[in-house]
Amino acid sequence: MPINKDIRAYNASQTASDKKVCGALAKIIDGNLPGAECKIWHRHPVWFLDGNPIVGYHKLKDSVRLLFWSGQSFDEPGLTPEGTFKAAEARYADADQVSEKDLKRWLKKAIKIQWDYKNIVKCKGRLERLK
To answer: Kind and range of the H or E element at 47?
Structure first.
């Protein structure tokens, strides 16, 4: 399935080096999250399963940040805790740093291990484990 046109436009708006990183991430993510909805959310590409954000990326000053909303629960090397909830990140300054093998493994875990970010407001900031 072709990458969402808005995500393609986001990727195309990046510098040449970042465009390669974003393109590699989008291709691997989109190809390994069957049935996921992908869209620009808060100005960045994000993939959702049943309305729950799973993974996304965005341009930082010196790199592209890949973010898994439930990534701290994956117990995976290469992912660093981010923020005060359950998110974890990896950063890429060059497309050669993107490991398809690692990313596919993380995406499999992202499908199985999810925290309910979709209802975080309704739960007054408390995350509950899904599945």
So the answer is: strand 44-49
